[in-house]
Amino acid sequence: MFYVRYLFAELRRRWGRTFLTAAGLGVGVALVVATTAFSAGLKDAQDDVLAPLTGVGTDMTVSRPLTIDEDDSGFTDLSEEEREQLEEENGGGRIAFDELGEPGEKFSNDSLVSGSQLSFSSDVIQEVSAISGVEKVTGSLTLTNMHTSGTVPDISEGPQFGVSHGSEGDRGEARELFGNMDIEQFTVAGIDASQTSLLPVSATQVTDGEFLDDSDARAALLSTSYAEEQDLSVGDTIEIGGKKFTIVGLVKHALGAAASDVYVNLTTLQKISDREGRVNTLSVRASSTDDVASVAEAIPQVFSGAEVSTAEDLAEQVQGSLVDASNLVDRLGFVLKIVGLGAAFLIASFLTLSSVAKRVRELGTLKAIGWSQSRVVRQVTAESVAQGLFGGAVGAALAAAGIAAFNATGITLQATVAAAPQTAGGGPGFGPPGAFGLGRASTVSGATDVVLQAPFDLNVVLVAVALALLGGLIAGGAGGLRAARLRPAQALQTVG
Amino acid sequence: MTAIRPETNVAYRLADLSRTYGDGNRKVHALREASFSVRSGEYVAVVGSSGSGKSTLLQLLGGLDRPSSGTIEFFGEALTAMSERQLTNLRQRSIGFIFQQFNLIPTLTALQNVEAALAGAAPSGHDAARRARLLLASVGLEERARHLPGKLSGGEQQRVAIARALANEPRVLLADEPTGNLDSETGRDVISVLRSLAEVHGQTVIVVTHDPRIAAGAPRLMHMDDGRVAESNEVLSDGLGVSMG
Fold first, then answer.
1. Are residues A247 and A262 in the same domain?
2. Contact B99 A489 (CB under 8 A)
3. Of the candidates B140, B218, B127, which has an alpha carbon nearest to the alpha carbon of residue B168?
4. What distance in Å separates the CA atoms of residue A434 and residue A182, rounded to the nearest whole number?
5. In this predicted model, which residue has the larger pLDDT, A278 or A109?
6. Is A2 in Cβ contact with B125 (below 8 Å)?
7. Average pLDDT over residues A64-80
């Protein structure tokens, strides 16, 4: 068709103008695609870092923390029933020295204690499950296994130690007494291994061995860091509450995750710790992201004293260059895209209008030989749209090359998580010195490097190319109409 | 579209045709009350000095511009009353233009330049290309069909322009200084080609020129001076100073 051949002849033989226009549009398109890809890469990196914070598929975690009033008046926020429960549970944590033997004799004691989190009946799972917007709930129990050994101290004039409220003088004496014994402790979490889609750890985190089997009551998973610290590996055994467990696998926690040293089946831990039917953490998944806020608000209404941590709360712990870069892109990304596209449109419009201005006599000639005004406008517009398409293709190629180069450089950003403050760990008389945060999974603090990979999103390319085409359509249409509306006589007098 | 009455024997009938540019003290009377007729198949040369209004007259005759006053009848139809769409159709089917500076599309080959005039009228691209080749052959440029205008000499470019003007077998050819950019020998060749083709096809030709050799060969000569048109039967050696009719 003649019009198509004319179009290509214009593009090919006015290659300088074609190249400049396409380059202008291409840079704009590339800027938009690259910025979007960089943004998506940062988001993916953030998601990688943040996803494990609450556990697999978990939107929020629920616990019942113990809070000590600032005036040292004790756990005043606990109900009478909760106080009795706390006393009962931490009987195991109290070291009754007078029952270990005579002062000066050697002793060894194993116990499972809960510390900063109060356990509660697993009936709460049903109550929370009934809240509108909740899709699934599972419970877990995290305790501290304390192995104490040494020489029985003379406590005839000293206090009993356990979960009790003591003065500064008491803590001084405690430090003196505990100097005669060794205390080894690690956190152990009982999880419902059958709920694979809603757990603090997942099978994907297993680095050696296998995940827990809910039918194996004496199987244990160890965190890689604890296994390394204790020189333990798969197949070894570990004592929990005085019972032997076989290590079936090792799991590596992500930065910021709520991590325990050891994982066993929930029912087993409940049984050996005399906490049957009790848990101290709930993992909750909302039906949709929109439900998270309302569910988080509703939980304390059915579960008094509950502390709800959403993924968003936990995400705030993450800092570092990853977050700085993400914040920067959030702030500047949109502006960059607008400026890029705006500049591209301006360049394309300017070049198109300039080109049309130089072709006024040519367009006047076409009208003189019988081309209609609309035919002239369509021709000029088609040329501009083709240039837009060419520019879009150039932009897509530039963006693809840029993204490939960017990914090849393997730019690494750092995400850091500071150690989370303990709710009640520093309370006076709260177990032995150094036992802050007993019975609570600790946050994996430190720093992790995230290699940034910007994804090439074809949809973004299509949108950017469509915008480039629109730019060509508008610029070409406006320029063509302006020239074609001139009377042929007027156009023919123009010096091209 | 305006139907042209083929039985009409008069190609153009002008009555008090004027064209004025600007307004107030800056008014320029490019054409003043021109009234004359041109018979179908007639060959007319219009001479005059630069700025005398020759090109303005030609643009009005070709429907490229609108008069300030007066009327033009084209084969009995009121050209001055036609809409833009009707004028477009008229230019496409009934009028062929030849310009002093050739006005070829620089990015198109000689063949494509001729096809450009057929683009809106020919039944298919294949027929258009075939007809364009025949036209180029008729002006002796068959071998140069695939050359761009920039690779052609001035005479060759003007012959391509003539082929383009003849593409739709127009009833009228309007040539504005067709030899103005050519040397005298090439100019003679171009005029020879133009006249012979027009004679073969029985086309009405109006040539605007200040070239006395073209004027000397024209069966009918009109003279323009300061926007006024006069018939002349006598042409002086320099082509100027003819008697006003």
1. yes
2. no
3. B127
4. 12
5. A278
6. yes
7. 67
pLDDT tens digits along B32-80: 999 999 999 999 999 988 888 999 999 999 999 999 999 999 999 999 9
pLDDT surpassing 60 at residue B102:
yes
- 3-state secondary structure (DSSP) of residue A181: strand
SS3 A54: coil
Q: Are residues A225 and A330 in the same domain?
A: no
Structural domain count, chain B: 1
Q: pLDDT tens, A124-137?
A: 999 999 999 898 89
Say yes or no: A357 and A299 in one domain.
no
Nearest residue, CB atoms, A1 vs list B66, B93, B125 = B125
Which of A314, A345, A372 is the endpoint of a domain? A314
Chain-chain contact of B65 with A372 (C-beta, under 8 angstroms):
no
Asked if A140 contacts A119 with a C-beta cutoff of 8 angstroms, the reply is: no
- In three-state form (DSSP H/G/I as H, E/B as E, the rest C), the secondary structure along chain B is CCCCCCCCCEEEEEEEEEEEECCHHHCEEEEEEECCEEECCCEEEEEECCCCCHHHHHHHHCCCCCCCEEEEEECCEEHHHCCHHHHHHHHHHCEEEECCCCCCCCCCCHHHHHHHHHCCCCCCHHHHHHHHHHHHHHCCCHHHCCCCHHHCCHHHHHHHHHHHHHCCCCCEEEEECCCCCCCHHHHHHHHHHHHHHHHHHCCEEEEEECCHHHHHHCCEEEEEECCEEEEECCCCCCCCCCCCC
